[in-house]
Amino acid sequence: MDYLDFKTFKGLGFSQSQETFNELLPKATRQLDGLTMDFYKRKHNLQEDLQSNQDVRRYRGEAFQISVGLTIEFMDETGITSTIALSNANTPNITIGRTHVDATNPVKGLVNSSQGYVVPEEAVRQIAPYGLLYRGI
User: Fold this and answer.
1) CA-to-CA distance for 111 and 63, rounded, in angstroms?
2) pLDDT of 70-113, one tens digit each?
3) N or C: which end of the chain has fewer CB within 10 A?
4) What superkingdom heads the lineage (predicted)?
5) 77: left (phi over 0), alpha (psi -120 to 50) or beta
6) Domain-wise residue ranges, the chain
7) Which uninterrupted H or E stretch holds 97?
8) In the prediction, which pLDDT does 134 show?
9) Is the whole model's pTM more than 0.90, yes or no?
10) Alpha helix ranges (H) inside 36-116
11) DSSP 129
C-alpha cells in the first residue's frame, strides 16, 4: 500500500509530474520507512490514522504524508535519491599555498544524513513532534 497517491500529493501543493511522482515514491517511502523504523509499515495503519476521530492520530498521518511529499520534492530537485548519491555529491576542495578551503556540499546540510537517510530536515521536522522518530524500547 502506498502512503500517498498522486491526487493527495498535488493537493498538498507539490508540482512534480505524475511520472516523477511514480518514479520517486518508492525511493522516498524506503527512506522514510527506515528513518521511522517502519512505523507505518509494521506497527500502525496510515489509513486508520488519517480517518481517526482522534486529532493527534489524524495529524500524525497527515504529517507523514507531507514528509513523503517533501522527500519526493527534495529528491526531484537535487537528484539525490540514496545515501550513496549523497556521499558522492561533489564537494569542492582547493589549496592555494598554505591556505586550504574545504567547502562542504550545501545539499548535505539539508538532509538527515546523521541517521543515514536521504530525508530533508523539513520533512523530519514534520514528523518529529508525533513520535515517529522515537528510538526507545
Assistant:
1) 17
2) 999 999 998 889 877 776 665 556 666 666 555 555 555 555 55
3) C
4) Bacteria
5) alpha
6) 6-130
7) none
8) 85
9) no
10) 46-50, 55-78, 83-87
11) G
pLDDT digit string (tens) for 50-67? 999 999 999 999 999 999
Determine phi and psi for 99, rounding to 5 degrees.
-95, 125
User: What are 85's three cell numbers?
Assistant: 548519491
Task: Please indicate whether residue 112 or residue 26 has the higher confidence score (pLDDT).
Answer: 26
Partners of residue 96 on adjacent β-strands: 99
The secondary structure of residue 131, as a DSSP letter, is T
Helices of type H across the chain? 6-11, 18-35, 46-50, 55-78, 83-87, 121-127
Pick from 62, 92, 72: which is nearest to 21 by CA?
Answer: 72
Closest C-alpha to 89, from 104, 71, 70? 104
- Per-residue b/e over 62-84, b at no fewer than 16 CB within 10 Å? bbbbbbbbbbbbbbbebebbebe
| Cβ contact 4:69 at 8 Å | yes
Three cell numbers, residue 121: 530536515
